[in-house]
TrEMBL record:
InterPro entries (alphabetical): KFase/CYL (IPR007325), KFase_sf (IPR037175)
PANTHER family: CYCLASE, PTHR34861
Species this chain originates from: Nocardiopsis tropica
Lineage: Bacteria, Bacillati, Actinomycetota, Actinomycetes, Streptosporangiales
Protein name: Cyclase family protein
Length: 319
């Protein structure tokens, strides 16, 4: 680990070593999703053997994990029309037609979601070295809005069940820093290799624990997660995206004094990495453990909210 007392220096050094600025040209809006090309998708489609599918999304409802940090709340679902109005004939439709309609109000990153490339900056710089003030304004992300990710995020998914391989009863304790060596150990135990263009799903088991014991501080509190030292692995592996079953992707508390999410500060604006959080990997993990196959076809398109810096997603893994 770098010096615990110098998070700014460590971020600067990692940014220098692992920057992908300019790799796909000055106008790039996809970052590492560029690694996931048509050939990779064709190969990934061949992974479907059984036709069994798994949603990797948590439910979106008022019983979610959010506690109000930075005004993040759980979804509020309101009915606009119900069967009661239909039964009473109050809706004004002809020949007995009735219907229901509803609306949801929610922060875009309150449950299973992608962090877009406009979500995190480093010293006022956004992905590809752009001026953050010009990229994201009150009108939204004018350059790298999440809508650009709506089509390409479909390909080979790989599950690294670090909780099952290294944890106790399938769960890593809060504060456990998952290193590159841990990720490689899980891949070896599963008999799977991580490669260019993959969407890597890292299960720690924290969501399993939260379901059993209650949300507690799941949204923002101590958690297992990726070590800052994995920045090199995330860069050199050339994966398209990574997702975890935790609120913040990286280990919490963070590994530096007086720091907040330093791995985000390298991974998003410098590596250009698409990061998923609060994914529900439990059912998929159980199936992978049972049949010994930890690769699958995965589609995980964000909802294309124009100019958004993140989006809810319902990832679907097909084996």
């Amino acid at each position: 680990m770098p010096d615990r007392s110098d998070p700014e220096g460590a971020v600067a050094e990692a940014a220098r070593k692992y920057s992908n600025w300019g790799r796909w040209g000055p106008d790039d809006v996809l970052g590492t999703v560029n690694f996931l090309d048509a050939a990779k998708r064709r190969t990934a489609a061949g992974l479907v053997r059984l036709g069994v599918s798994f949603s990797l999304a948590q439910r979106f409802d008022m019983d979610g994990p959010q506690r109000g940090w930075r005004r993040r709340t759980n979804p509020v679902h309101t009915m606009l029309d119900t069967g009661m109005e239909a039964a009473r004939g109050d809706q004004g439709f002809p020949h007995g037609l009735g219907g229901a309609d509803d609306v949801v109000s929610m922060p875009l990153q309150c449950s299973t979601q992608w962090d877009g490339l406009g979500h995190i900056f480093d010293h006022g710089r956004a992905w590809n070295g752009r001026d953050a003030a010009e990229v994201v304004t009150s009108a939204g992300d004018l350059v790298t809005g999440i809508e650009h990710m709506a089509a390409p995020v479909a390909g080979r998914g790989v599950l690294l069940d670090v909780g099952r391989v290294l944890g106790e009863e399938g769960e890593l304790p809060d504060g456990f820093a998952v290193t590159a060596a841990h990720l490689e150990a899980a891949a070896s135990a599963h008999g799977v290799a991580v490669g260019r263009g993959d969407i890597v799903c890292v299960r720690t088991g924290q969501l399993t624990r939260a379901r059993r014991e209650g949300w507690g501080d799941y949204a923002g509190g101590p958690a297992p997660g990726l070590s800052f030292t994995t920045a090199g692995w995330l860069h050199s592996s050339e994966i398209a995206a990574v997702a975890t079953d935790t609120w913040g992707f990286e280990v919490r508390p963070n590994e530096f004094d007086h720091a907040f999410q330093p791995l985000h500060q390298v991974a998003i604006p410098h590596i250009g990495l698409l990061i998923g959080e609060m994914w529900d990997l439990d059912a998929l993990a159980a199936h992978c453990a049972a049949d010994g196959v930890h690769e699958f076809f995965l589609t995980a398109a964000p909802i294309p909210f124009t100019g958004a810096v993140g989006s809810p997603v319902n990832p679907v893994a097909v084996k």
